[in-house]
Amino acid sequence: MVSAGIDYSINYPSVVINDNGLFRFISFERKDLSKKYLFDIEHHIIEKYPDTLEDSIRLNKLIIHVLQQYGVGLVKIEGFSYMSSGSSYIDLISYQSILRYMLFESGIKLEIYSPKTVKKTAGKGNYNKMEMFDAFLNENLDNDFYKNVLKFQNEIRKNNKEGTVTDIKKPYQDLIDAYWVLKTESKINENV
User: Which of 78, 73, 86 is CA-nearest to residue 17?
Assistant: First the structure.
């Protein structure tokens, strides 16, 4: 079955699709940022960034359209982090809840994993974004996205003024998070 992992972030919702070992990395954005990319990524421009219920429904329809286009039958999503707070987090919960309902209505199976379980898939349940990125570098995938991440890994890392790595640039961070969400099922099944 073709499956997908979704990282439903506020700024760059990302999807990674696994079609029998062929991985597709897809970003959804507010505007065309492809000129800022270090390499080509499949991306879809969001007509209007969701700040209303109607905008969220429009975005979620686009995501479902892409999933159906690739024949996805199973979607995996990271559950909500109950340690997070703030108005943007409330928006994120609302938008993702709408997506969950729309996936159900469209007949696409949905599995939800806790953030800790997804991080354990990458290595440990307390991994931060940089550790998840480093774990991704060790996956040895045979696709252009992975090869380009390896090639541009220093440019993808965000540095502070002192040159210390502090974060991973968007949309790469969200795409790699979506990859680990997708990977979670297979790692769990390997232990069964």
Answer: 73
| Closest by CA position to 115, among listed 86, 81, 148 | 81
Q: Could you state, in order of their start, the residue ranges of all structural domains in the chain?
A: 3-190
189 or 161: whose pLDDT is higher? 161
Q: How far is CA 84 from the centre of its chain?
A: 18
Global confidence as pTM: 0.88
How does 150-186 read in b/e, with b if 16+ C-beta sit within 10 Å?
eeebeebbeeeeeeeeeebebbbbbbbbbbbbbbbbe
User: Which residue is listed with tokens 């969400």?
Assistant: 181
Backbone angles phi, psi at 23, to 5 degrees: -95, 135
Tens of pLDDT, residues 62-74: 999 999 999 999 9
Top CATH class of 3-190 equals alpha beta
